Amino acid sequence: MELPADVKKRLTLPFEEHFYAGHTACQGCGAALGLRYVLKAYGGKAIFTIPACCSTIIAGPWPYTALNAPLFHTAFETTGAVISGIEAALKAKGYKVKGEDGIMVVGWAGDGGTADIGLQALSGFLERGHDALYIMYDNEAYMNTGIQRSSSTPYGAWTTNTPGGKKHFLEQRPKKKVIDIVIAHKPAYAATASVAYPEDFMRKLKKAQTIKGPSFIQLFAPCPTGWRSPTDKSIEIARLAVQTAYFPLFEYENGKYKINMPSPNKEPKPLEEYLKLQGRFKYMTKEDIEILQEWVLKEWEELKKKAELFG
Amino acid sequence: MPKKVVSGNYAAAYAAKHARVEVVAAYPITPQTSIIEKIAEFIANGEVENLQYVPVESEHSAMAACIGASATGARAFTATSAQGLALMHEMLHWAAGARLPIVMVDVNRAMAPPWSVWDDQTDSLAQRDTGWLQFYAENNQEVYDGVLMAFKIAEHEKVNLPVMVVESAFILSHTYDVVDMPEQEEIDEFLPPRKPLYTLTDFENPFSVGALGTPADYYEFRYKIAKAMEEAKKVIKEVGKEYGERFGRDYSQMIELYKTDDAEIVFMGMGSLMGTVKEAVDMLRSEGYKVGAAKVRWFRPFPKEELYELAKNVEGIAVLDRNFSFGQEGILFNEAKGVLYNTDAKPIMKNYIVGLGGRDLTVNDVKTIAKNMREIIQKGKLDREIEWYHLKR
Ligand SMILES: Cc1ncc(C[n+]2csc(CCOP(=O)(O)OP(=O)(O)O)c2C)c(N)n1
Ligand code: SF4
After folding, report:
1. Measured between beta carbons, which residues in chain A are less than 8 angstroms from residue B22?
2. Complex ipTM, two decimals?
């Protein structure tokens, strides 16, 4: 289809769709949106690996597929290993991997499949230096099995196995910083991204395509079902996560950190603005909110320091 | 034909090299380690081209990486033992379910605890229901031949299932023996490059592998694997025959029969212990015992028809199991009895549990078993169904 001239001017994302209508995500699903952008970025010349997670379902049951790309569904904890094997096979067979005309090998896994059960395979993949991209879409819980906590679930969040209740049995541990663990491996490229900032995400995807070695992107992907949030607020929530510095956008390359905030000189907004849109935080007490706010600002200061020291 | 004096493990490594494997992903474990070390040496010495070696961080990932590679169209190989195989278990299902012709050598090793590095078949037999074909080698030559045939069988258009070639810890893995290896050109003729059922590089017709199978379809996926296993029997025999014609060692029988034509008592078992058994058969024959040996080469698919033919003409079968299924009996015994239930062949069958965790089974042990079997046949009645042969009392 030809684009109207005025549209062409505004749109910087590729117009072609490689994510088919009829996929089976919930309304307002951040993961589905994220997957759509990845497919746009690689124009159907990517091989996807998806482990057990919501995206297994989103991609559709046999004999259907919502992705205009070869897709291998694999076991929960194996994304890092399977993309390693695919990359190795492509090289053995003499295919061009990465670059504008090469094949992108993409692992697309949830936070559970990355930060918990799949951490070992992720570490192996990074350490061995395979030419592939691992994307962790972070919806901060195990959604596919019905909203249980993962190590990426933040302090104070309700999930079905941190249900609150009389004893205040909410998530008690801070969010595991998977990206820091990844960076400790000194990968070729690592970045955070958000579905609320698709152009930034697209730029990072393109970057991963040009860099030699393993890349990792942690994509913030709201889940209205698990976060108990209105289905039309996903983007707003994702934007607030960045604006409050709860989920800052940055990238790491060659030992250097670079923060990519939309309004770099603005102070972070109060965290409460972000929390109040989501039912999962409604059991938090005032003290809980303070604890989480403090954590966010401390982490943010730390990141800024890193960017200053290693910018 | 070039001959080499090699260990069972080196025989496996040479076979993988001669099969022109494209991706090897593996993790070390005693007694398998020297297989993957040897393959690394081939690469280091420039003896192989286009072989990608992925030194993974676990056996679970070894199989996962082989799966990724095989789904991308490459010929993939790995090797492991005991705890490593157990850790792979989930992915063994994945390899078979995704119809990937990966070949793996398992060096039979007893499961811990207590820690043991010695021979025992429980590790591989515990993978019985994963959809893998299983070949048990008696000696180093069979390890080598087994790996080459395994690729051809696994990649056959009617099979498309993974194959495990099993050798025993130390008895084969670390002992040296003469192994005949055909010239590379002859092997290339026998085993041409893989023609995959599908590959993930098909960007013109993108599809997904392993998507959710609803109750409307899952059942048929399983049936197709069951059918492929049945088809595999024909393919195994064809390939075994072709191997014999090309290289002089015939593998057209899924059960190798040794002096069973007029035998009253047959010893049945798998793997290296059958070498000892055959020797005992020779000695017992000279003492007037009508005995023979039936070596089950392929445990999956199970050679039901061949077993039935054998059982029709013998009075007693002593099943030697170097394994045990707790709460029941030896696994080969269990399977063999099950096969004969609905037939009119009803030899007396007794299960001898032998050699667990590497204990030696000697020729004299086999003789003792023969005497025991003869008494049972004379009385027409079992003394007991299962005997833990070596038990210290
Ligand atoms: C070995 C194993 N354990 C448990 C499961 C069950 N399981 C499937 S998906 C899932 C949670 C996935 O969570 P996450 O990776 O965060 O992705 P999301 O569903 O949130 O998108 C679990 C526990 C499994 N498939 N495999
Ligand atoms: S549960 Fe959440 S992540 Fe899963 S499909 Fe629905 S919205 Fe998306």
Report:
1. 89, 92-93
2. 0.96
